[in-house]
Design brief:
Blueprint lengths: L1 H8 L5 E3 L19 E4 L12 E6 L3 E10 L3 H16 L4 E3 L9 E13 L2 E12 L4 E12 L5 H28 L1
Parallel strand pairs: 1-4, 2-5, 2-6
Antiparallel strand pairs: 3-4, 6-7, 7-8
């Protein structure tokens, strides 16, 4: 019995991962007056992905969760936070928020993810995003499929590939935002 208890206590805690490079620099803290506000809704994911567990797909239908790494928060929260930080850094002419801002947002961004996981050939990221104006009119709606090859299946490599995929998505969204705000 003592041996079983000591084995449990010596188990290593999993490493914690986030997407992106960390919080924005102080230079990205902006004044909100007279700038359009873009609200990023909480990203929608399939339930099996929206947890703190890092998920990879094996042989088509088999899903594996990592025993050595996990997300620091539910994946939908991690992605939403990273999308907002990335868009704020790329588009300083707008204020990007994930919570209800003081003033009514000019634009509302929603992202629905169908797949975002490591697979034997690499990281696959697919879904749809849309931007809605203040009047409720849809201004843009796009499907996306982004893949990043991976030679390494360790947690850090999966997190890095997923970050690259998410970066590609935010670059696409930022280009559309830039055009919408310029109108």
């Amino acid at each position: 019995m003592l041996l079983a208890l000591s084995a449990c206590s010596s188990a290593r805690a999993p490493d914690l991962y986030v997407l992106g490079d960390g919080p924005p620099d102080q230079a990205h803290i902006v004044e909100v007056l007279d700038k359009p506000v873009v609200r990023v809704e909480r990203v929608q994911l399939p339930d099996y992905l929206d947890s703190t567990e890092m998920v990879t797909r094996q042989d088509g239908a088999k899903i594996e969760t990592s025993t050595t790494g996990q997300w620091v928060d539910r994946l939908s929260i991690v992605i939403t936070r990273e999308v907002a930080q990335s868009l704020a850094a790329q588009e300083p002419q707008v204020v990007v928020s994930t919570s209800a801002p003081v003033k009514t947002p000019s634009l509302l961004l929603t992202i629905h993810i169908d797949e975002f996981e490591g697979e034997p050939a690499g990281c696959v990221f697919s879904g749809r995003w849309s931007i809605v104006g203040k009047d409720g009119k849809e201004l843009d709606d796009q499907e996306f499929l982004i893949t990043t090859p991976m030679n390494d299946r360790r947690d850090a490599a999966v997190a890095a590939a997923m970050t690259r995929d998410l970066d590609q998505l935010t670059i696409r969204i930022a280009a559309v935002l830039r055009n919408l705000v310029a109108l």
